[in-house]
Design the sequence.
């Protein structure tokens, strides 16, 4: 497929803004589906996991391909719930453009701001779609203002609604000065054009003037034509709008009601007209593996192969399915390529194009395309695939650490290996899910991003993978850090297999503030000893970081610097330097004072105004600090931070204190010293 007519887009939004409902309409109007699946009835094509149908939410990002106006559109429908933020993160990493969906009642909600910031980080051009204009309390113009103020962007409406709530009946196309209605007899497939209603002519003219004013910043000739009183070709305006969208200066805004089948085709036109093709995205930067330095890889099917695995799912019949975005070159079925992340060759047995839960076989995937590889045994999220003779590494994806743990055990000992295999599959699929088995007690502990996240995963274990397990109560996933800076030297000397092994390592450890992460730096000249020895020290340090300092928790928010080594060509070995690195780290950290750290969560509570006092009081009792409040027409939103340990069971408490009308979401913010220090 010509990359100029390809669009790789994602659909991003707050939970319940109508992402999956909109995607279902897109699949229907583009001919991929012969009927429209509804989320509320559990029939949505893109929510094909049983739990997604039962819960009415999107859990995994689903990929599909459709065609519109001669363009191939690869769509990824992402989750809106904060517990599945990794799904959004890894999807944005490989997208060229995105459609941000906003509820006409809820407006710019907290998770909308989160995903918008994620898209800003990856410089993803976007268009916006204000959905649910048929809902009670819908207000298109208020949501426009919220987009402008909360997201710090310049929204440009291309359509305005005719009526709202139960009177919402169509949209006015400002560029063509026409009213569009969508024939309800065939689910909105036929678009009927007509003149702008007389009572809306002035409003339409005002918004058209604003549109021209904003677009003219991209093309001076538009303003000259406007002031001269001459007609302006809509194609000229679209061209300027495209330039503004790709640069991030303008945000085209569409409006409709996906559930009522109004306005979705206009959004599809917007995807083709304003979002970039793979050719229009800046070349990706990749690190050269076999020598220092980087290279840029333009979107060229004749270039060297470079692709990124951004998602892995597991199927019983076929094994791992690796979703891959090809940035450069061509991937052919049957060839062997290098998995750069794992330093192993892997064979491409099949290449698939996904249509949600259906697939079609392909013989090649070219630069700019998204597809699925069958046959990789080691592929994981973040791995780069490349040619063995030209190995490059694309920037890896980083994911937040799990903050909540649950003990889990098989109901019978014979199920132990089955459980371990199932957990391995889940951790392949989800980078924010981890598990480990305590060698002394045999207890298995799983960790995730929140109670819903772990609930979904344990339900999959029981229902999909047929593993009978007992699940404990959720526990906080603590970390350790240090209180002060310290530098120590450790000399490792041991006789192994009648050969002396020696290594001397000096490490300096420094505490970093909240969100400091883990930093390892080598301050020693690379001429001091072979590269493998430096790698061995780092392996030892990182292994010790996993094991903790005094309490056995992983470490966080600290910097480790290798400041000195002593190397003997005759007596030193990789094993000696790895052991020296680990033991020197323990010695340095114990001298710096260990402290237990607990996760502090960002909490966002949405409640009717009359319950605000009770909610603030209840948050304060749980150790929370309220940072801000905002009033909305449908209630108040409270932003606070609170330790996770005191938030277990909060959803039940909130429901009972607000007569079931309060909702909340929380996401990890940072680690802070815990009251519990033993």
Sequence:
């Amino acid at each position: 497929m010509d990359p100029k007519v390809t669009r790789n887009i994602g659909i991003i939004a707050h939970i319940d803004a109508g992402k999956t409902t909109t995607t279902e309409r897109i699949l229907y109007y583009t001919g991929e589906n012969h009927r429209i699946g509804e989320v509320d009835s559990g029939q949505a094509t893109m929510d094909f996991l049983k739990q997604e149908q039962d819960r009415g939410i999107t859990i995994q990002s689903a990929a599909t391909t459709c065609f519109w106006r001669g363009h191939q559109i690869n769509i990824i429908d992402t989750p809106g719930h904060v517990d599945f933020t990794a799904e959004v993160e890894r999807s944005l990493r490989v997208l060229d453009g995105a459609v941000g969906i906003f509820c006409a009642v809820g407006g710019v909600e907290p998770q909308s701001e989160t995903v918008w910031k994620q898209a800003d980080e990856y410089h993803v051009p976007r268009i916006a779609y204000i959905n649910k204009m048929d809902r009670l309390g819908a207000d298109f113009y208020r949501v426009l203002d919220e987009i402008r103020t909360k997201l710090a962007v310049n929204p440009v409406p291309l359509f305005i609604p005719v009526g709202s709530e139960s009177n919402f009946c169509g949209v006015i196309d400002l560029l063509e000065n026409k009213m569009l209605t969508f024939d309800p007899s065939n689910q909105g497939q036929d678009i009927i054009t007509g003149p702008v209603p007389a009572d809306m002519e002035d409003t339409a003219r005002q918004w058209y003037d604003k549109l021209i004013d904003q677009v003219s910043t991209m093309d001076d000739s538009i303003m000259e034509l406007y002031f001269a009183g001459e007609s302006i070709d809509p194609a000229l305006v679209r061209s300027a709008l495209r330039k503004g969208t790709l640069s991030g200066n303008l945000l085209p805004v569409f409006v409709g009601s996906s559930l009522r089948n109004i306005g979705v085709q206009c959004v599809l036109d917007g995807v083709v007209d304003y979002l970039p093709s793979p050719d229009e995205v800046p070349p990706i930067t990749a690190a050269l593996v076999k020598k220092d330095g980087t290279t840029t890889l333009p979107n060229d099917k004749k270039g060297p192969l470079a692709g990124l695995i951004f998602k892995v799912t597991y199927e019983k019949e076929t094994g791992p399915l690796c979703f891959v975005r090809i940035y450069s070159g061509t991937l052919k079925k049957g060839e062997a390529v290098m998995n750069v992340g794992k330093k192993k060759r892997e064979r491409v047995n099949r290449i698939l194009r996904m249509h949600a839960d259906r697939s079609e076989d392909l013989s090649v995937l070219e630069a700019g395309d998204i597809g699925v590889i069958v046959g990789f045994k080691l592929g994981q999220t973040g791995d780069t695939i490349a040619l063995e003779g030209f190995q490059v590494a694309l920037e890896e994806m980083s994911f937040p650490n799990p903050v909540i743990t649950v003990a889990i055990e098989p109901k019978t000992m014979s199920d132990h290996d089955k459980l371990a295999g199932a957990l391995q599959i889940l951790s392949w699929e989800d980078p924010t899910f981890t598990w480990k088995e305590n060698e002394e007690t045999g207890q298995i502990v799983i960790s995730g991003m929140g109670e819903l996240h772990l609930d979904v995963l344990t339900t999959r274990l029981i229902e999909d993978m047929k593993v009978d397990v007992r699940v404990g109560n959720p526990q906080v996933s603590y970390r350790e850090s240090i209180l002060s800076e310290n530098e120590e030297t450790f000399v490792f000397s041991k006789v192994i297999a009648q050969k002396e092994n020696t290594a001397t390592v000096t490490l300096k450890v420094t505490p970093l503030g909240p969100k400091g992460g883990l930093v390892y730096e080598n301050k020693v000249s690379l001429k001091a000893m072979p590269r493998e020895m430096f790698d061995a020290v780092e392996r030892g340090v990182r292994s010790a970081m996993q094991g903790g300092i005094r309490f056995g928790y992983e470490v966080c928010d600290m910097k480790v610097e290798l400041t000195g080594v002593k190397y003997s060509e005759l007596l030193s070995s990789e094993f000696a330097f790895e052991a020296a690195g680990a033991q020197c780290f323990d010695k340095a950290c114990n001298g710096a004072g260990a402290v237990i750290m607990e996760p502090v969560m960002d909490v966002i509570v949405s409640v009717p105004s009359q319950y605000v006092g009770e909610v603030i009081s209840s948050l304060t009792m749980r150790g929370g600090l309220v940072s801000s409040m905002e009033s909305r027409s449908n209630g108040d939103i409270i932003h606070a931070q609170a330790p996770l340990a005191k938030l277990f069971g909060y959803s039940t408490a909130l429901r009972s204190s607000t007569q079931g009308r309060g909702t909340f979401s929380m996401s990890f913010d940072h680690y802070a010293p815990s009251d519990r220090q033993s």
User: Anything to note?
Assistant: Residues 574-592 form the longest helix (19 residues).
